[in-house]
Amino acid sequence: MTTRLFGEPVRRREDARLVAGNGRYLDDLGADALAVAFVRSPHAHARITGIDVDDAVDVEGLVAIYTWEDLPEGVREPLPLLIPHPALTHGRTAYCLAKDVVRHVGEPIVMVVAADRYIAEDVCERIHVSYEFLKPVVGLENAVEGPNLVHDDVPGNVGAHMVQEVAHRDGRAARDVIAAAPHTLEFRLDIERSACMPMEGKGVYARWDADDRSLRVYSSTQTSTSVRMAIAAKLGLPLPKVEVIAPDVGGGFGVKIVHPWPEEILVPWAARLLNREVKWTEDRREHFVSSAHERAQVQHVKVGFDDEGRVLGLDVEILHDHGAYTPYGIIVPIITSTQLLGPYKIGSYRVEFFSVYTNTVQVTPYRGAGRPQGVFCMERTMDKIAQYLGKDRTDVRAANFIQPDEFPYDQQMIFQDGRPLIYDSGDYPASLRKLKDLIGWDDFPAMQAEAAAEGRRIGIGVGCYVEGTGVGPYEGGHVQVTSDGRVHVSTGLTSQGQGHETVFAQIAATELGVPIEKVSVVTGDTRRFGYAVGTFASRAAVMSGNAIALACRKVKEKALRIAADALEADPADLEITDGMVHVVGAPSASIPLATVAVLSNPLRYAFDEEAKRATQFATSGSMDRPPVAEGQEPGLEGKDYYSPVRSTFASGMHAAIVETDPDTAEIRILRYAVVHDCGKMINPMLVEGQIHGGVAQGVGGALYEKMAYDEYGQLLNASFMDFLMPYVTEIPRIETDHLETPSPLNPLGIKGAGEAGVIPVSAVIAGAVEDAEKIVIDRMPISPSDLYALRDSSRTS
Ligand code: MCN
Question: Which ipTM value was assigned to this complex?
């Protein structure tokens, strides 16, 4: 049947428009708007002692210069702390424009509005800010050792300290279990700071309607409804007077969930004040130094295990670099702490983290959000146990797996959403079997020996993960069938390239029994849908997918009722196929869904062709205006919300074969295999695309990408000339297989997939390089020069 599209590899509907250059991104809008540029701090830590604009004020085309002093009351306050937590005793957020102290290179100090961006940038160069230099805090060890402070009132630079502990079932604490375990290991693992690099940076464009006293704001955001709430609150406007629209968004990867960015408040504020259209688009350097970074973590591990490699006790101490501010609270180290357990039954567990301020760009979630660090920690632990016991690395993992008959499995911890960490479903042994077959795990030792005989070094690595997806609290869907038979779907969360236009249409087409060509989808537009949370944490498919399905079911129920009247049938005997409502088994007894839409509205317009036909079909005359039945509403539309009891847990396993060059230490990925389980797949082709993109980002994190700060807090590689991202030539073909263990928690049985690809890559590559080189790899990313140095030090040690 053409309308059963859930689960089919439907091609992405949005691509033809985007690839042909017909996308409408932020900078495609507001061609006549005034342009904004910012004077940003060149210093990592300094007190502002003066701002001199005398040289700038005469520049032709300059419209306005604003500093913190010029801002109105609400906008003068520090930006909101989005996710407070009791353990975050010293949360700190930035001002829209720096008030007195700058705490990282790139912090905005002065906003310039001018006729165009060239003029705005010229004006910025003529503004002279004077500073009293303060000692910068750079690097985790420096932060905790002191004596310099990022925030005067945060002792030891520690913003948060948290311990979670799961005792052994005999009541012993993890540290006691480890002390008494047959075998113990202790080591340190580092992951360097990195950042996502969406093709399109952030951007905001605002228009003030002085007559209506309302704002329309376009933002390249992952969370349009929250940006709207923030603007309304900060500018003192009623919510209905603010519209926020996310146009096409060229990637987000987490950085566009932070809300509001200073620019998202400042640009609308200036538009209202000046009564002019105002726009700011981030340039690449701004993205490097004034948006957000992630990863940046040091992890000390102690593990106790038995002869089979079963983990009896695990003790992890995490030092998390938060950068200068904590707008997103401590969500990243909390995710690391809880998701680190992966698919394993760990006998007892203690995790402690310190979240520390440094004079660097703030750290907020980036695709995977804390999980790559956690998985690096756990999977390196599994590898080390296997090596210590002389066992196969997959056998050690299998010995620790939660078994398929143990779901729901309670990890006895509190998850990031404040709810119990309970895995809903999965089949980890089956995933591992599939993965081993896919990569040819058991044949590898022979291959490796053969390669060695030719003087080549190859190695294999494996990594497993579990990912909490589809966090609440809610998402909604609205569905309307119009008299031309078209179905209009809207949901409040936004899209950044995930293919929502396709998958949400698949869901609506399947639920309503209409051809997908008849379905249109709108996301991220508060005019169409006002209440939403946003796109992050791999939640859109679960949250909006289910909400849209529920809304469709409401519409279908109404449609069948109306059609049953018209066909003099029982609604229970009707179904909808290809846009026709018909009696099951008797397709000739049918009416089009379009006609049902007309019948749903007593006001049938004479200029609507379908209405004319429907009126003749179903009533005695065109003047007929039946009353709306009690409890009913006119129109064939419905809205519903989906709000889960708790998150659903996707999982996956990756393996890679790498080759390292004996002379140059170049690392090449020869093969990369993924087995992934995101429950019921709406669109397997899109899921694979998501995984491929994620793996590519993971390869970047494993081998190339890091933020190179010097001791003064200057980011030395803040451009694509110096920050190394992999090209397609560095990304191997990714072989993918799936497993579908449906989630019992939501009507469609879906789990999320958007971050999965990136999560275990560093762990997998580290294991593979270690296997090729027989050198311990405990820090990522690893470049050829790092590997070269490691070879040197292992020769001398
Ligand atoms: N999907 C599916 N079946 C499932 C699960 C997902 O067909 N069982 C499809 C979805 O319908 C959707 C895609 O896979 O088209 C991802 O779905 P989901 O896992 O719900 O993730 P989100 O849509 O919520 O996207 C967020 C996620 C995150 S957190 C980051 S970061 C990320 C990512 O998606 N950023 C991206 N993928 C990205 N892809 C692009 N192109 N650009 C980004 O910025």
Answer: 0.99
